[in-house]
Design brief:
With 119 residues, the protein is an all-beta fold. The chain has strands spanning 2-7, 10-12, 18-26, 31-39, 46-51, 57-59, 67-72, 77-82, 91-101, 104-109, 113-117. Strands 2, 4, 5, 6, 9, 10 and 11 form a 7-stranded mixed sheet that branches. Strand 5 and strand 6 (57-59) form a beta hairpin.
Length: 119
């Protein structure tokens, strides 16, 4: 089993910044791609950014130029640095990891952290 715990959410004004963290624990062998997703009220969960085990990152168009995802394998942690935040970034942000272990591919989710952008 893999556990993911997000932190770093909060309330900020438009134009502000937040840094989200996601700590991975448990059976971490075989974890490759990790991602940040978000879900706003009344909307479907959507991809924000992903990072592969080779440190290749991809971003949703809404995140490009403002958000940066990174991983620190020594700390079993991934981050999402969010700058120039907009009200439409308000959502619960979730961390997800994919794991290939003993020929089985699974994915795990954290419980999320709330981000609110409002003046």
């Amino acid at each position: 089993q893999v556990q993911l715990v997000e932190s770093g959410g909060g309330s900020v004004q438009p134009g502000g910044s937040l840094r989200l963290s996601c700590v991975v624990s448990g059976v971490i062998s075989g974890i490759d791609t990790m991602g940040w997703y978000r879900q706003a009220p009344g909307k479907q969960r959507e991809l924000v950014a992903t990072v592969t085990s080779g440190d290749t990152t991809t971003y949703a168009d809404s995140a490009k130029g403002r958000f940066t995802m990174s991983r620190d394998n020594a700390k079993n942690t991934v981050y999402l640095q969010m700058n120039s935040l907009k009200p439409e970034d308000t959502a619960v942000y979730y961390c997800k990891c994919q794991q290939l272990l003993h020929g089985n591919r699974r994915e795990y989710w954290g419980r999320g952290t709330q981000v609110t952008v409002s003046s």
